[in-house]
Amino acid sequence: MTYLTTEPQMTTAAAADVARIGSAIGDANAAAAGRITAWVAAAADEVSAATAILFGSYAREYQTIMSQAAALHDRFVQALTGAASAYLDTEAANAAVALNTLTATVRSLLGRPASRQCQNRRDRTQRDDGACSNSHHRFGDGWQRRCRYRTRPS
């Protein structure tokens, strides 16, 4: 079985690098376009005129090929950017499934959620009895304090 590992941030950076390279090549082609397509015969004879026409046709073919290469390059950059986005979306979806599974497991074991946002919300009917431990436990995305709560007397 083949496994594929990718870094979406590196793919996005590569797409940006490829786009910069394409931009530099496009600028160089645009700067040279006038000089390579405007051939003037070196002399007034037929051979010089035919040579100028031949080189002019080569220059026009080069410009056509370079415009096709630029379009291909743009599609390649779009494909790299799209792939990075797709991998990020897939990672986010997989992380959400894993987090939901972990949260459900922790909730079933501890009777409360493991996330800091849910843990730090105190019901108005409960109060802190001052028996918080200084031990920290790593849950979800941050350090958490584990506290014991008692039901407030009526």
Gyration radius, to the nearest Å? Answer: 33 Å
Mean pLDDT: 77
**Major beta-sheet overview:** 2 strands, antiparallel
Distance between the termini: 63 Å
- Report the order of strands and helices: HHHEEEE
| CATH level 3 topology of the domain at 8-110 | Helix Hairpins
CATH architecture of the domain at 8-110: Orthogonal Bundle
Region (Disordered): 115-135
Domain PE: 4-94
Pfam families: PE (PF00934)
Biased composition (Basic and acidic residues): 120-130
Jot down its keywords.
154 residues; Helix Hairpins; two-stranded antiparallel ribbon; 3 helices
Describe this structure in words.
It is a single chain. 65% of the residues lie in helices and 9% in strands. The strands form two sheets. It has a two-stranded antiparallel ribbon. α1 runs antiparallel to α2 (46-110). β2 and β3 form a beta hairpin. The chain has a domain at 8-110: HP0062-like domain (Helix Hairpins, Orthogonal Bundle), CATH 1.10.287. The chain is rod-shaped, with a radius of gyration of 33 Å. The model is unreliable at 118-152 (pLDDT under 50). The chain has 154 residues and is mostly helical. The longest helix has 65 residues, at 46-110. It has helices at residues 8-37, 46-110, 116-120, and strands at 126-128, 136-139, 142-145, 149-151. Residues 115-135 are annotated as: Disordered. It comes from Mycobacterium ostraviense. InterPro entries: PE-PGRS_N, PPE_sf. Residues 120-130 have a biased composition (Basic and acidic residues).
